[in-house]
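Fill-in record for GTPase Der.
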Amino acid sequence: MAKAPLPQVVIIGRPNVGKSTLFNRLVGKKLALVDDQPGVTRDRRFGEAGLLGLEFQAVDTAGWEDEEPDSLPGRMRAQTEVSLKGADAALFVIDARAGLTPLDEEIGRWLREQEVPVVLIANKAEGNAGESGILECYSLGLGQPVPVSAEHGEGIADLYEALVPLIADKQPVEDEFEEDEEGEPDPDAPLHLAIVGRPNAGKSTLINRLLGEDRLLTGPEAGITRDSIAVDWQWTDPRDGKVRPIKLVDTAGMRKKAKVDDKLEKLAVADARRAVDFAEVVVLLLDATRGLEVQDLKIANLVLEEGRALMLAINKWDVAENASSLFNGVRSALDEGLAQLKGVPLLAVSAMTGKGLDQMLGAAFDLREQWSRRVPTAALNRWFDHAMDSNPPPAPGGRRIKLRYITQIKTRPPSFVVFGTRLDDLPASYERYLVNSIRKELGFGAVPVRLTMRSPKNPFSKD
């Protein structure tokens, strides 16, 4: 499926400040020619860049020179000016060792008049030679400079921190699922639903029941299914009568590794794991005659580690003994065994009679909606301020841990980054508090939420 276009970040500066070196660093290849003589770059060069998981299109531009418009340097400058139209951010690069020049000041004045947000880059800042140049940058009125060494790769984490607030909301969807015209997950696209579990839990029987035909081979023997079988199907949602497309994926049963010695079964299990990778929601099917076993918890953890939305269904409910105590026992064991994600949906179903299957599918669509949710920036900031006020970060050793702001960098699974200082001292219990609060207050329910902590590495920071 087509991805949304990458956000565009344009690199601007006078000749020989290291723009192409920075471009090569960001794209991870030596796409742009680099030399000590100025003016090597003439045309704009585009490359897909990655910065600690942040994706964007980097644009290398010709050095900005103060020449007549009809001259070659003048035409190169015009190309640079045009490159800023439609850009999402600009990196204004200066040479920290050379200090601020009149041409840098001219470019700075021009950039202040533009609507594109600017990150000021003090390049060649390795060692102490660039300290005075970094301080001079403040006079440009473009905010705090980011000291980097494009040649040596220093300061990249700080550049990431500066760029995230500008382009994080414009990240492309990173999976194979369908998007709408604006690049957001399409809620009307087929639900990719994988059915996993131990051998003979009734996965193929359940899918046959949903389809209303013997589409998949079933039987009392464990391990009949080897390949992951995908079936396109349409389900009429009894809640609103809407017809919803689903891609159902049956998988091979997953046994303990110690019991898997057949090469073909190893391949089948590997194929099942790949099916989880391409699923949106995964149903872990349990056998009511056997209850919840350690292997079930291992499969559940695998699904959560892959960042997929998870739900559990107890199959063969029509033959279950002491059904109420079985359900409550499985619920308690789940909350204990999956402590990192309490409240995972648990339903009772029967592939033989069809009991609970509509509820299972309805819950799967609800889970996908939560898994695909993007929180508006204003709502995320309000939640963050409230979370800090309700339970401030601890102050180990009398020194306060500062959490400055949070941003959502992607969905599917929902992933957030918190920026602050002294985060190495932040206890894991506080991170769990934030994650649990995100789930409860921002409508994520029981889907995996990723939270990353990042501290600035600016040597000039006073924190």
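KEY FINDING: The two ends are 45 Å apart (CA to CA).
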